[in-house]
Amino acid sequence: MGDPGDGVDSVLISEDRLLKRVGELGEQISADYAGKRLLLVGILKGSAIFLSDLIRKIDLVVDYDFIAVSSYGGDKHSSGVVRVLKDLDSDVRGRDVIIVEDIVDTGWTLRMSYLVENLLARGASSVKICALLDKPSRRRIDVAVDYPGFAIEGYFVVGYGLDSNGRYRNLPYIGIVTSDGKN
Ligand code: IMP
Ligand code: MG
Fold first, then answer.
1. Any ligand 1 atom below 6 A from CB of 103
2. Is 105 a catalytic residue?
3. Beta-sheet pairing, 83-86 with 96-104
4. 181 located within any domain
5. For the whole model, what pTM was predicted?
6. What are the contacts of 163-172 at 24+ separation with CB within 8 A?
7. In degrees rounded to 5, what are phi and psi of residue 56?
8. Would you say residue 10 lies in a domain?
9. CATH number at residue 32
10. Residue 70 to residues 63, 67, 84, 157, Cα–Cα distance (Å)
């Protein structure tokens, strides 16, 4: 499974399992959007690593952009307050969009930022959601993930783009942090 990094208690999803599942998602998306021009919209910062692997498994004409929203303010528990910190550069009119998220936890970020509605209002042809990780037991707001990677328990996880106070994004696997994660 690999050696957990300093401060990481255990490995939840190994690098091999991550890359295999990302490959499957890429194949599924390629089939579903055959003949279309796709725009992936990654939510910064957590989705960047997932998006970079996913897009290389998509066999279509595809572009990507990023949006930054904040709901956490450094705390591990969502505050329910969402701010758009950086908007898209792209014109989404007529585009088929997939929002790429690292993890859907309470659902506040996706729901309260009205991202799907917002992109449709700007003229996107369609908007779906792809999330590497899904914590259904933690959901407070109804958010349907069209392309889920893995459903996990309510653990706080790090790695493969996910952080704990800015650490661990570079781990190639998903690990569980049960200690305070601030080491
Ligand atoms: P939500 O708004 O509660 O659904 O949370 C979504 C965002 O919270 C994700 O995009 C992550 O940035 C962050 N988040 C939620 N759970 C975790 C976790 O276990 N580890 C690291 N970040 C998390
Ligand atoms: Mg995020």
1. yes
2. yes
3. unpaired
4. no
5. 0.90
6. 163/45, 163/46, 164/76, 165/74, 167/7, 168/5, 168/7, 168/8, 169/45, 169/46, 169/49, 171/5, 171/8, 172/2, 172/15, 172/18
7. -80, -5
8. no
9. 3.40.50.2020
10. 24, 10, 7, 18
pLDDT in tens, 50-77: 999 999 999 999 999 999 987 654 455 5
Number of structural domains (the chain) is 1
The answer to whether position 92 is within a domain reads yes
| Within-domain flag for 160 | no
Q: pLDDT tens digits, residue range 100-143?
A: 999 999 888 877 667 888 899 999 999 999 999 999 999 888 88
Q: Which of 105, 134, 142, 180 is catalytic?
A: 105
User: Ligand 1 pocket, 159 CB below 6 A?
Assistant: no
- With 0-12 / 13-18 / 19 or more C-beta atoms within 10 angstroms meaning exposed / middle / buried, residue 81 is exposed
